[in-house]
Write a structure and sequence with these properties.
By secondary structure, the chain is of the alpha/beta class. It is built from 9 helices and 7 strands; from the N terminus they run H-H-H-H-E-H-E-H-E-H-E-H-E-H-E-E. Strand 6 and strand 7 form a beta hairpin. The chain binds S-adenosylmethionine (SAM). InterPro entries: SAM-dependent_MTases_sf (IPR029063).
Length: 213
């Protein structure tokens, strides 16, 4: 994990030196101040954002976006999902303020994803069926990842799906965590032009074989 963060730090220094947009430099600045929570040196690309949302059925989905950052996935979700069925979560105050300005009509929650169940309206507990996550699960401390997944379990339906990207080849969630949540990963697609290239995985509830017959 340390090597991954050092590589991202070196890449971010290269981006600063080569010149970048105001949004990108905000992102690099936030990454420098808290590398393990931000987990990326640049906002995700349009290509990755398209892949993250293309599998969502707009007519039958109640969606939480976790770790929205500056909003590349949010932009695609807003175009697809009715306003009352989309909850955008970001705990970094710089990114939160940016999101509120960029999406003034949306529900943007400046809360820790560890406490989702306290902030998602109670009548929707058990009904959230899609989670689009930009959270850097591999660089977050293990206890934080566990708390986020426990909180998700409280608000999601039994047949929810979690769409998650990673820069690495392995599934994005540590195995113990996905087993705790009762979900299994399926590889979905590569976004080759993202910086760095990203892999998208979709987690669905694990099907347990019925051995009683
Ligand atoms: C890898 S960035 C992804 C940002 C954006 N989705 C994108 O793809 O460009 C991870 C984001 O997760 C947010 N984050 C990390 N831990 C969080 C937590 N516990 N609760 C809410 N957001 C969190 C970070 O602040 C950051 O914006």
């Amino acid at each position: 994990m340390k090597t991954n963060i050092i590589n991202l730090l070196l890449l971010s220094i290269a981006i600063i030196i080569s010149g970048c947009s105001a949004e990108q430099s905000t992102f690099v600045g936030e990454f420098m101040s808290n590398p393990s929570a931000i987990g990326a040196i640049a906002p995700s690309s349009e290509e990755l954002a398209e892949i993250m949302v293309e599998n969502i059925d707009p007519a039958n989905s109640i969606v939480i976006e976790l770790g929205a950052g500056t909003g590349p996935f949010t932009e695609k979700l807003v175009a697809k999902i009715p306003k009352d069925k989309l909850f955008i979560v970001e705990n970094n105050t710089t990114f939160y303020q940016h999101l509120v300005k960029r999406f003034p009509d949306q529900t943007v929650l400046c809360v820790d994803a560890c406490e989702l169940d306290k902030h998602i309206p109670e009548h929707l507990h058990g009904k959230i069926n899609v989670v689009v996550s930009g959270l850097p699960f591999r660089s977050l401390p293990a206890d934080v990842a566990t708390k986020i997944l426990s909180s998700l379990k409280k608000v999601c339906s039994v047949n929810f799906k979690l769409i998650q990207f990673t820069y690495f080849k392995e599934p994005p969630l540590p195995l113990a965590e996905s087993e705790m949540l009762g979900i299994s990963p399926t590889y979905y697609k590569l976004s080759p032009n993202n910086t760095p290239a990203a892999h998208v995985w979709i987690y669905n509830p694990t099907i347990v074989a019925d051995t009683s017959k």
